[in-house]
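Budget justification note: compute hours in this period were largely spent on complex prediction jobs such as the one shown. Inputs:
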Amino acid sequence: MELESLLNQEGLVHQKPKTEEIRERASAIDHPVRLFYGETYDAYGDPIDSIKYYFFVSMLSKSLKEEGYSTDPRILVADVAACRNVSSDLNDKYIELGDKRAKFVHKVSDTYNLDLNVVKMSDYLFTPEFQSHLEEIVELCKGDPEIMKRIEKTVPESKIDIERKKSFAYSFDEIGTIIDLDVKVGPPREDLYDDVARKIAEVQQRKSLMSLFLTPTFPLGKSWAYFFANEGIEDHGITAYKAGSKQLQGNRIIVGKTSSLEAGNLIDSSFVPPSLELPHPILDIGIIAEMARINLEGGDFNLYKRVQEGQLDERALKGEVKDSLNKYILSKF
Amino acid sequence: MDLEEIVAKDYEQKSAQREKEKRYYEEKLQRTGLKTLDRFLRYCSNPSDYMKNGITYAHRDLENVAEAIAENKPWAVVSGLNPSSPLHLGHKAIFDELLWMQENGAEIYIPLTNDESYVVGKSPSLAESRRIAYESVIPSIIAMGFNSHKTHIYVDSDYKEIYNVAMDVSNKLTLNKALKVFGLDNELDNENPGTMFYRSAVQVAQILLPQYEEFGGPKPTLVPVGIDQHPYILLARDVAEKKGFILPSEIVTKFLWGFDGKGKMSSSRNGSAIFLTDDPNSIDTIVKKSYTGGSPSGKFQKEHGGIPEICPIWSVRTYHFQRDNSVDRKCSSGEILCGQCKKEALEEIKDFLSDHQSKLPEARKRVDEFILKTPINSILE
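Corresponding output:
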């Protein structure tokens, strides 16, 4: 797929660098283009929404390779970060869950013939090289009140005191991980980390990462009233990679757990917005299924355009999304 | 002063009035912490006409109600009315909004507050406002098309249960709190024990009544109000919290201008209101003499347009007859002048009154179907 087609896909790409910027970077660097998506997880399983990112990073990598560039497409399973989010007695369980998530990424990669390298945070975080790299970053940040202010912003207000006591270890691990990337793919809410990484790169006078945000994830099986009541959901949605984000695990498609019937019921009871500017959980699932089809059979995106042009009424859209979801994703796991 | 100066001054005054009007609602919104309906309008696929054209414009906690609408759960609306006179066109606006709510699943409770009419001095006796309630107000409400299975009307003095409920909520309030909420801390000279009992206890009882066991227990309850009635909701929310009820929500509608242009349509100002029981042939004068947002010079108005936001004629037509904002557009662009607009308004109002009044004889026969009689025993046993 051409880079332009992929990056201009409405309903999938929320914010992106110009294609020319990516090409310029790819031409200017002396290493493969570092493409990256990182995620944590929870105990509820592997949400279909994570697959959207795996597909995208792989498709981006293949598009660049078709143009002759070398790439390093990487999916990070942030097991250490996931452990930091839970109490210490759950660490062993979460390390195990990290292994499972990494296996899941491998399985998705194999099933759809993706171009991905899977890395766990525990594989590199405690190496002397990374720790020394991290120390350098921490030192630089602590000497710059403006950067420290930005780092504080990466933490929700309710957790600021706890994170301060932990010397913002979670944030620094994240920043240390992403600072040398070329293109970082993620949900829009990660802009705060990316912003700090760019600021540090500016101070160090080196190339900064380019952020590429995909559209937010929304719960299924919810009426219009849910979206009306949740101000700000349009911008950030719920956490794509945590099935239990906001305790909405019953409103997500969890690969290997949610049956075809359950997924169908969730789709049938989901809100279809009157405008494509509003959250559209069904279209989002439809586009993920479309990415699966493209990876398996080739072809191009067309669902968004057909919805935009009013070619599908609510019933037809729901029917088509259920069919393609079953055919291209649920039946494979 | 020559005509040109008069015209310019008139335009300047009316423009200033429009700005003042706009500021009034904006400031009230800021002061009360209410939210606009913008977000609701983005998500709700069938908002009411009043919501669409900005007449119903603000809310608090409409989220509860939206969930009930979307998921077909029970919810209630409470909209009280002082029956010191027959209904007028201003009241009709409220009832049109209630009809939309009923179509969207609400049980409608309409307390007719003849006790209030009496204690605040709007009616010479409890009996007089009670008579108006049964003879005129209730039939007019029924004639608007409400469903008797989902509409519960009561005249306070006849539904004595409401006073027991008022007693029940009373011990969740302090008089100090009520005085502060109503801003009456230093203005008690015009109050009597009845007004205080009514405002602080009976009105709260009316708002919370649908959440009593006899009506299915706690449920989202919406109270449509004018922005000046906001304090009543605050008091009711305070009590609801203490009783373990769902905090009542409110939705705010802008008032309909009186024909005298001196504020909201009111039965207590001559020349302000057209009543739903007025003879259609008797309303020519009030409409023809109505204040408008137009200019003394037709030429000037054609060039600069009128100022619809402060015009009672625009207000009546947009609220009741031309809800697509076409009057607004024609007036602002100078396409229609006040004479023609009044003529069209007069025809529309007359048609409406004739139609409404033709339904009253049948409506009078159905009054009993709508009257709430449910005893409230849960607080006595």
